[in-house]
Structures are given as C-alpha cells and as structure tokens.
Amino acid sequence: MQPKPLKLFAIFCGVFVIFVLVGFVLSKKGHTPSPEHAVDALADGRTREGESELLLLIQTNPDNEELWYVLLASLATNPHPFPDVFKFDPSGRYLQAMNFALQIIAGKPTPVPELHPLLADIGGILMMANQDIKAIEFHQKAERLHPDSKTRQRILRSMKRLGWHSDFNRLMQDSIYFQSADDLLRAEYHLHKHDFLSMAQDILLHQFKNYRLSIVAASSAIGVCWLILLLHVGRSGSWPIRTIVGVPVAFILGVFSAYATLCAYEIEGLYYVFDGKQSWLVTLLYAVFGIGLREEFLKLIFISPLLLFFRKGAPIQVLILATIGGLGFAIEENNQYYVNGGATVIGRFLTANFLHMSTTGLLGFSLVSALNDSRQWGNFFERMAYVILVHGFYDFLLMDTTFGNLSFFATFVFILVARTHLRLTAELAGGRVYSIAPVLVFTVALAISMGISYLMFAVEIGAMRGFIQTLLSTASMMFVAMLFFQEFSRET
C-alpha cells in the first residue's frame, strides 16, 4: 500500500528540519575561509567575495606569498579600490611588485631592478593574472638569482599551461626541477614520456591529497542514500550472502573506473584537446566519443569481472550490482563537483548520479544477458550504442550554447534513460508488495540530499539565504523529482 502524499510530505519535512537545525547552528560559527574557496569564488566571477576571503587569510598569515599573488592578480586585472590590503604589507614588498606588474600587464616598457624577491613576486602576480609568458621571464631571472623550489614549480606550471611541451620536458629531465614539481606536473611529464603507469600513480596521489573531509562526507551520505534505495528496490533481503558480498565490490570497482577515466582523459589529451571553442558539431562528436564512449566503456570494463562471476544469478541481482558500479563512479565524481557548493548536490542527486547508475546498470545487464544467451549479442551492441549516444547527447546539451541554453532539454534525455532503467527494475523485481514502499525510501533520501545541500549553503552564505537557495535549487529539479515519485510509486 502506497503512503498518502500528506504522510510523505510530513516525513520529508521531519527529516529536512533536522538538517535545518544543524545548519542554523553551523551558520552561527561562520564560514571558515580557505584558499581553495577564495580561488573558486574568483573563478566563478564572485570577485569581491573571493578577494574579501583572501584578505581575511592574509590577516592571519601575511607571509603567505601565494595568497598575495592571487589577490594582487585579481586587483591588477580588475582594478577597483581595495585599500585595506597593503596595511598588512609594512615593508611595501608586495605594493612595489604590484606597481611593476600593473605596468607590465599594460604593456609599458618598465626597467625592473634585478632583485630577489621582487622578481619572484612580479612573476607570481603575472602568473596568477594568466600572463604566463612574462611570468616565466621573471621567474627564470629570480631562480638564477636565488634558486628556489617554489619558483621552479611556477616556471613548470606556466610552461604546462602554455603547452610548451618540449621546454617543459627538458626542464623536468633535470632532477632539481623534477623534485620541485608537484604530482600533476610529474603526471604531465610521465604522460609525454608515455609512461602511463607512473602518470596514473601521480594523478591518484593528487586526488588523494586533495580530498576534503566535509566533501567526502557529503558525497558518501548521498551514496548511502542511493545504495539503500537500490538494495531495497532490488529486494536484497532475499539475496544469498555471496551476492550481498558483491555489493561493496561493485561499488569499489565503480570508484576505480572513475580513477581510470581521469587517466584516460589525460591520455586522450595527447591526441586531441577540447577547449570548448570548437563548432557545435565538433562539440557533439567530442561529447559522444570523447565523454560518452570513454566513461561508459571504462565503467563496463571494471564492473565486468564481477558480473561474469554473478552471471548465473537472478536478473534483478545482476541489474542492481551493475547499477551499484555506476553509483561508485558517480560518487567519486561528486567529490570533484561538490567543491562548487550546495547548488550541485540536488542537481547531481536527481540527474548525473542516476544517469551513471542507469547507463551502467542497463549496459551491464545486457552484457550478462548476452553471455548467457548468444542470441542476445545483437541487443547488447545495440544497447551499448544507445547508452553511449544518449550519454554524449546529454553532455552536449549541457556543454554547447550555439543554439542558446539547451540544458533544459537534457532533462528529457535523462528521463528517457531513467525510465528505461526504473521500468526494467520493476519488471525484474517482481510484483510482490514491499513492506516499506520504495517511494517512502526515496522521499527520505531526497530529504537527506536536500538537507546536505542546505548545510553547505548555510555554512557558505548563512542560514536564511542558504534556506532560500536550497528551495530554489530543489524547485529547479522538481520536474525530475516527479519522475522518481511516479516510478517508485509503481513498486507495490
């Protein structure tokens, strides 16, 4: 028996209110400034927010060169009054560097004294202002005057960003520069040497070092919500123990496939770099063959050994295990997307997360069907083409703006795939009545995801503004939420 809408609403509100209370308490503590958040704010065009946060950080750590460079680069490329900053520069070191940097950016011939750290400071400001060629010139002069690992790393970063591969590789062959490089710079070097194993190791080290506990906790909570719902809909209570053991294995394999995708993306960049400036047709082809093919193929490759082991299991078990592999991929992606704040949580919970889950589930199920019945291989290849094309077209609608903002139409593509998966799940799970209606479990999961979104908003922008932004983010996804309410209400 399906719960009444009023009951669902009451349960939703009850769960969400818990998060509201916690968010209210956290908002009172205020947002803790961080360099990462400040840089993200500047990149998103929230200039004053990013600069104000950098100023707070400089107050507590006025000797941090990187903070100064980022802030001064923002001021140099977007001039406006910001009088408070230089009171934390009593020696005038950064003010002097700023004045030279402004003249250099303006293209004025400027004789600069051969002094350290002046040359390094000018180079740092120019680098953060995306004036990499000029930045390299000043950093090289600074490094000759005063050899320093930070300066060497900045030279390497600028060369990498400019695409000066031969110069970059030449410097990286020098053990002094190699030791100064960070994990991503070493990954770039190993990539161009075609040492893909070392490249993968460096990329993974970078990933692990940059995980943020709060983001991982939020992403994990969303993952648990989907996992519980999948297991419930798949009637896991009647599964044998060995199939239950396969659940965490499927999830881990999905996470590994996400790491493999990062490496594949870097290798792909050896032969083709997509910068978003190409025609709509090139963007479409890249979305299908550069994103859809890459991600769906690697997810299937990693989950296949487990599916092969369980190929004789019940069809619903195969479908759910394959879907959990897609969930592992999606949750690892969340760790990267959630750094953009609470606005990404609801949207990814209702679309991107389930897109990866459903495509992997459908493709994995089709593979096992073909392995069990050779007459199904045609259906498998048809399903693979369908999944890759739909995934690519979905991303294309989000990426390309040639014909205006097409992201709304991506929703219809998502609904097409999601309904196919949900209907197949319902068919394979059988018609027995659930002791707890799936729509009730989904309601709780939606309330938790909305609550996590609110917590992130509340910490960033305050309790009341966070509440409004959470409602707006959720409202924009209500069309998709209705799909899930409708489909899960069919599970009786």
What does this structure look like?
It is built from 22 helices and no strands. It is mainly alpha-helical. The chain has 2 domains: 35-162, Serine Threonine Protein Phosphatase 5, Tetratricopeptide repeat; 211-488, no CATH class. The mean pLDDT is 91.
Features:
492 residues, mainly alpha, Serine Threonine Protein Phosphatase 5, Tetratricopeptide repeat, 22 helices
In short:
With 492 residues, the protein is an all-alpha fold. It is built from 22 helices and no strands.
- Strand pairing plus helix content: what structural class? mainly alpha
What portion of the residues fall into strands of 2 or more residues?
under 5%
What spatial form do the alpha-carbon principal axes imply? globular
Number of helices: 22
Report the helical percentage: over 70%
Mean pLDDT: 91
- Tell me the Rg in angstroms: 26 Å
| Count of strand segments | 0
Q: Biggest β-sheet, characterized?
A: none
Overall number of domains: 2
Topology:
Elements: H1 5-29, H2 35-43, H3 47-60, H4 65-77, H5 93-105, H6 118-128, H7 132-145, H8 149-162, H9 165-172, H10 175-180, H11 183-192, H12 196-209, H13 213-233, H14 241-268, H15 280-309, H16 315-337, H17 343-372, H18 377-399, H19 407-429, H20 438-461, H21 463-475, H22 478-488
Helix pairs in contact: 1-20, 2-3, 3-4, 4-5, 4-6, 5-6, 6-7, 7-8, 8-9, 11-12, 12-14, 13-16, 13-20, 14-15, 14-16, 15-16, 15-17, 15-18, 16-17, 17-18, 17-19, 17-20, 17-21, 18-19, 19-22, 20-21, 20-22
